[in-house]
Write a structure and sequence with these properties.
single chain, alpha/beta, Rossmann fold, 5-stranded mixed sheet, 14 helices, 9 strands, globular, disordered N terminus, metal ion binding, ZnuA-like
């Protein structure tokens, strides 16, 4: 018997025997976390997300219904992963209260916003361009490794693979860079990071920071020739107003109307900022490509990219996810 114990211990040390191995169940607040956690976790995890892509526009009752439908997974999950802050604060509260009320269980959240630069030098809660996505994935890897040290080496290996994937999937061709750099935009300020730092577009201004929509509209009316000149000298002959679907897809309507009223050639489009917010947009890379192709299609109107479909509205987001009982990801 003693020899058997020694033999089994040796096998365990060599990694040839792992007693009771099962996937780690992870509840995330949003599709962006779900996507990256699934990439980092690989076969070691099963991941779900709670909030639909249009979460900021979804009622409290909708979230409650989604929680109820997935109550067993939420009750028994091993890890609860969130960003922290305004973007998923409501979801965090809802999940915490749901588990306490229904199962008398406390919920310990792993929040990206709580990670220090000492722990992860590139720590960030942003994921909207390739550079920050690297730090975002490193932050998630740190949290998963802290909570599940047995799989830490797996997470690190998958991170290295994912970092290479980021570089490959987001590289712009020389032609794309040339086209994008000559497209002038006025955008929601949360779009600017992606539009400028990755796509390299010419951002004239952003709203409501640093300029309020009202002040921007006033400037357009007072200086129409300035904007006409910018449009005329661009590669597509117009200025593009870019909305942020999560912030509210109508914030820039007044800006767009002001440009039209003063005779400035312009177009208004809506950028995504989450996976699962349009058909066939399943990952962060897909949403990157959606936005990039939406812009490039303006330079080649005859070539409508397959990914530039209508964003999923709050109602459709809810119906789709409720019908599927929330997406589970197991790589």
């Amino acid at each position: 018997m003693k020899k058997l114990v020694v033999f089994l211990t040796l096998l365990l040390a060599l990694g040839l025997l792992v007693p009771g191995v099962s996937a780690v169940n992870i509840v995330t607040t949003m599709p962006n976390l779900w996507d990256v956690a699934g990439e980092i976790g690989g076969d070691s995890v099963i991941v779900m997300y709670v909030a639909p892509p249009a979460a900021v526009h979804v009622s409290s009752d909708t979230i409650d219904a989604l929680l109820q439908q997935n109550s067993e997974f939420i009750r028994t999950a091993d890890i609860f992963l969130g960003q922290g802050g305004s973007m998923d604060g409501t979801v965090i509260t809802k999940v915490t209260e749901f588990r306490k009320k229904n199962f008398d269980e406390d919920t310990d959240w792993l929040l990206l916003s709580n990670v220090s630069k000492d722990a992860v030098p590139n720590v960030t809660v942003a994921y909207d361009n390739p550079k920050v996505l690297q730090g975002y994935s490193e932050t998630i890897t740190y949290l998963l490794s802290t909570a599940d040290s047995l799989n830490a080496s797996v997470y690190q290996k998958n991170l290295n693979t994912y970092l290479k994937k980021i570089s490959e999937e987001t590289k712009l061709s020389a032609d794309e860079q040339d086209i994008l750099s000559n497209i002038p935009i006025i955008c929601h300020f949360r779009i600017k990071n992606q539009a400028v730092n990755w796509l390299g577009m010419d951002c004239i201004n952003s709203y409501p920071d640093p300029t309020t929509a009202k002040d921007l509209i006033d400037d357009i009316h007072q200086n129409p020739n300035k904007y006409k000149s910018i449009a005329a000298n661009s590669s597509i002959g117009k200025i593009v107003v870019i909305e942020n679907i999560v912030a509210g897809s109508d914030m820039g309507i007044g800006v767009h109307e002001a440009l039209k009223d003063t005779g400035v050639p312009c177009e208004r489009i809506i950028f995504l900022n989450l996976p699962k917010s349009a058909e066939n947009v399943d990952t962060i890379f897909d949403y990157y490509a959606y936005n990039k192709n939406l812009i490039l299609s303006l330079a080649s109107p005859s070539e409508t990219p397959t990914t530039t479909q209508s964003p999923v509205g709050p109602g459709l987001a809810f119906v789709g996810i409720l019908g599927a009982a929330l997406l589970l990801r197991r790589n």
